[in-house]
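Re: How this chain folds, sequence and tokenised backbone to follow
How to read it: Take the token row as a discrete description of the fold.
Start of record: The labelled sequence and token lines come straight after this line.
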Amino acid sequence: MLSILIEDREKYMIYTCGSVGQSDSLKSFVEESMGIRSEMNRYDIVFMGHLGTGEIVPFQGSPFVERGGPAFFGPIAASCLTKKVATVTRIAEKETGLLEPLKTAGVDLYVQPVETVQYRVVFPTANVDERQVFRLSGGGHFCIDDVPPIEPCLIHLGGLSFHEFSLDFMRTLKARGFRLSVDMCSFVNQVDDQTGLVHLEDVPEKKDILRIVDFVKLDVMEAKALTGTDVLKDQADILEDWGSGETIITRSDGALARNKGKTVFARFTNRSVKGRMGRGDTVMGSYLARRLDHSVEDSLRFAVALTSIKMESAGPFTGSIKDVIERMDESSP
């Protein structure tokens, strides 16, 4: 049976529990079967950001097309745990097929129909931390009116395009009672207007951002752009000194978590890098979901084990909690 929930006929296509609905054409069905809900919806984690499609050019490999973005890989990774997860995103109406893996994972979707972000990623060397990213089209910023009727919860802001989230937007969310998690790529990534090439730059308001968020996610190259050092532990130390409450930094060999002066590192155990795209987003999605009721160290080990499995094949994580626990046990000292 179709399960369809419409919250705002003017702004969103809304998909819930793996089913699809477009507001006007299904209005009578929705009203008869379950009514139009006016109360705030409750979630454990909400992911917000654009979805996109991109051509991936691996080092010494054949190019392929991959859908992605923090709002794609993150919630799918989080959904394997028994948490209620939603995504607020934007894609073109003609490309709603991109949502299928999210619906299959049981993620509730609030979708604004706008142009899908298009990008190209080139890996010029065998080092998967080195990549050249080109934004081809799409993007834009979110404002507070784009937040659907949801009760305050943990919300992860992960931009696929650039300047998706302003500091004022984040402050407003915080004032409304949301706990904030942010992917700093939304800020350090800058685009050349002529070539579309993305380059990393320092962020003048970085300390203000770090002080108001509960979690911050970066990769080692983004952290270097902010801190000026490529030493992982030093990066975490500096970010914490600037106000970061809990920091996650990913690198080709593993991920680091920093909280209250304590640093933990867990090593990836993947046997291939076919699924390199979405590495950091998968780490963060699974980490945040696990972290709701587990320690920093356990959450990091869980996230790294899950991401190790994901990286062995293209696309999002499709395994089970059992698979992840077994991988954690395999990598235990």
Remarks:
- The longest strand covers residues 85-91.
- DSSP finds eleven helices and 16 strands in the chain.
- The CA atoms of residues 152 and 178 lie 5 Å apart.
- The radius of gyration is 19 Å.
